[in-house]
Write a structure and sequence with these properties.
It is a single chain. The protein is α/β, with parallel strands linked by helices. The chain folds into two domains: 118 residues, Alpha-Beta Complex (Aspartate Aminotransferase, domain 1); 230 residues, Aspartate Aminotransferase, domain 2 (3-Layer(aba) Sandwich). Helices cover 44% and strands 14% of the residues. The strands form four sheets. It has a seven-stranded mixed beta sheet, with helices on both faces. A two-stranded parallel ribbon has the order 1-12. β5 and β6 form a beta hairpin. The longest helix has 32 residues. The radius of gyration is 21 Å and the shape is globular. The structure holds pyridoxal-5'-phosphate (PLP). Pyridoxal-5'-phosphate (PLP) binds next to α5. It comes from Lingula anatina. InterPro entries: Aminotransferase_I/II_large, Asp_trans, NHTrfase_class1_PyrdxlP-BS, PyrdxlP-dep_Trfase, PyrdxlP-dep_Trfase_major, PyrdxlP-dep_Trfase_small. Its cofactor is pyridoxal 5'-phosphate.
C-alpha cells in the first residue's frame, strides 16, 4: 500500500539543527534554530514560568479534565487583552475574542480553515520571503491560489515598500493578506508605523482581509505594548481581522503549543457566530486544546507581580538580541568586510537576513561549522560574546574569498 510513497524533502530548519548536533567540531555554531538562546548558547526556561509551574504542581484543585473545545476562558480573555490593550474598544464592545490554538501554527491553520471553508476565500498573499510554513499551512487548509507581495530588496538590503504597495494594490477583493505584525521572520525588517498606515489604507480600499501573524510580541522592542502596535492600529481603524498569537517565543513555551486565534469583528453577534463555527472546526481537528502551557500563560498574565517579572524577562531577551546585533555589526566593520552591514542593526527581533548568498552559506557550514539557513537567515541568539569574533571572521572570509 505504501510502496509508491515519495519521501518529502527534509524540513530545513530541523535538518540543520540535527546536522549541527551531530557535528563534533569544538567551535560549531547553530545560527539556524528558531528559538531563543542564552549567552551560554542554551535554551532558557523563564524563571517566572518555572515559578508558575511549581505553584501548579502543588495545587490540589487542578486536574486533567478536558478543557472546553474553545480553550480555557481565562486564557482566552487574557490573551485578547494582551494583544489589544485593556482599554480596547473592541473588547468593551464584546466584538473581540480568542479561541485557544496549538501554537501560532495552529492559530494560522484554524483561521485559514475558517476563511476557506466558511467564507470560500481562496487567494492568500504572503510576503516574499516569509516564514517557511505559511505556504504549507494555507495550502493544506484548501487555499489553491497562493501569491506573494514584494517585501525584501536583497540588493539594497531593506524593505521594498513601493513593490509591496503595488502588489497589494493589484490584489483581488477578499484576498487574505498574511502580515507579520512584528519582527518579520525571516528578514527582521519591519515597516515603519507610517508605512503600516499606508498598508492598512490599501487593505481597506481594496477590501482585502488582514490576517496578522504575531509570533514575537516583545522581541522587537522589549515592550509588549509597542510590539502590538499593528493589531491595535488595525482595531482603531475599524478593521475586521484575525490575529494568530504565539506564546512559544515570548514565554519560551515552544513544546507546550500555546497560541490563540484572536478575532476582531464588526459586532458582538458576529463574534459569537465566528467563535461557534471555529469551535466546530477545532472539534474536528484536535478536539480539545492542551492545558498546561495555557494555564502557565494565564497565571502570569493575571498576576501583577508575575506579569512584571515576565516583562523583565522579555526585556532581557530583547536586549540580548540588540547587543548581539551591535557586536556583530561592529566586528564586521572593524574587519572591513566588504558591503554595508547596517541592516543588521536596523532589523528587529531574533532574525537577520544577512544577504549572504547560498555559496557563502555553504562555505560557512563546510569551513567553519556555522549552521544557518540557505536563505542567509541567522538567529541572532546563536551569537554570544564568546563566538562573535569567530562568526564575524567566518562571514568576512565567506564574503572575501
Ligand atoms: N509565525 C511565525 C512568523 C513564526 O516564526 C513562527 C515560529 O517560528 C510561527 C508563526 C509559529 O509559532 P508556533 O511555534 O507557536 O506554532
Amino acid at each position: 500500500i505504501f510502496g509508491e510513497l515519495e519521501v518529502p524533502a527534509p524540513i530545513e530548519v530541523f535538518a540543520l539543527t540535527a546536522a549541527c548536533n551531530e557535528d563534533t567540531h569544538p567551535h560549531k555554531v547553530n545560527l539556524g534554530v528558531g528559538a531563543y538562546r542564552t549567552e551560554e548558547g542554551k535554551p532558557w526556561v523563564l524563571p517566572v514560568v518555572h515559578s508558575a509551574e511549581n505553584a501548579m504542581a502543588n495545587d490540589p484543585t487542578l486536574n486533567h479534565e478536558y478543557l472546553p473545545v474553545k480553550g480555557s476562558p481565562e486564557y482566552c480573555k487574557s490573551v485578547v487583552q494582551l494583544l489589544l490593550g485593556s482599554d480596547s474598544k473592541a473588547i468593551s464592545d464584546g466584538r473581540a475574542g480568542a479561541i485557544q490554538a496549538l501554537g501560532g501554527t495552529g492559530a494560522l491553520r484554524l483561521g485559514a480553515d475558517f476563511l476557506h471553508t466558511l467564507l470560500k476565500y481562496n487567494v492568500f498573499y504572503t510576503s516574499s520571503p516569509t516564514w517557511g510554513n505559511h505556504l504549507g499551512v494555507f495550502k493544506h487548509a484548501g487555499f489553491t491560489d497562493s501569491r506573494q507581495y514584494k517585501y525584501w530588496d536583497n540588493e539594497k538590503r531593506c524593505l521594498d515598500f513601493e513593490g509591496l504597495k503595488a502588489d497589494l494594490m493589484a490584489a483581488p477583493e477578499n484576498a487574505v493578506i498574511v502580515l507579520h505584525g512584528v519582527a518579520h521572520n525571516p528578514t527582521g525588517m519591519d515597516p515603519t508605523q507610517d508605512q503600516w498606515k499606508e498598508i492598512a489604507a490599501i487593505i481597506k480600499e481594496r477590501k482585502l482581509f488582514p490576517f496578522i501573524d504575531l509570533a514575537y510580541q516583545g522581541f522587537a522592542t522589549g515592550s509588549l505594548e509597542a510590539d502590538s502596535w499593528v493589531p491595535r492600529y488595525f482595531e482603531k481603524e475599524g478593521f475586521e481581522f484575525f490575529c494568530a498569537q504565539s506564546f512559544s517565543k515570548n514565554f519560551g513555551l515552544y513544546n507546550e503549543r500555546v497560541g490563540a486565534l484572536t478575532i476582531v469583528s464588526a459586532n458582538a453577534a458576529a463574534l459569537q457566530k465566528i467563535l461557534a463555527n471555529l469551535e466546530i472546526l477545532v472539534r474536528r481537528t484536535w478536539s480539545n486544546p492542551p492545558s498546561h502551557g495555557a494555564r502557565v500563560v494565564a497565571t502570569i498574565l493575571n498576576n501583577p507581580s508575575l506579569f512584571n517579572e515576565w516583562n523583565q524577562h522579555i526585556q532581557t531577551m530583547a536586549n540580548r538580541v540588540l547587543l548581539m546585533r551591535d557586536l556583530l555589526f561592529k566586528k564586521l566593520k572593524a574587519l572591513g568586510t566588504p558591503g554595508k552591514w547596517d541592516h543588521i542593526t536596523k532589523q528587529t527581533g531574533m532574525f537577520s537576513y544577512t544577504g549572504l548568498s547560498p555559496n557563502q552559506v555553504n562555505y560557512l557550514v563546510k569551513e567553519y561549522h556555522i549552521y544557518l539557513l540557505k536563505s542567509g537567515r541567522i538567529n541572532m541568539c546563536g551569537i554570544t560574546t564568546k563566538n562573535v569574533d569567530y562568526v564575524a571572521t567566518a562571514i568576512h572570509e565567506a564574503v572575501t574569498k
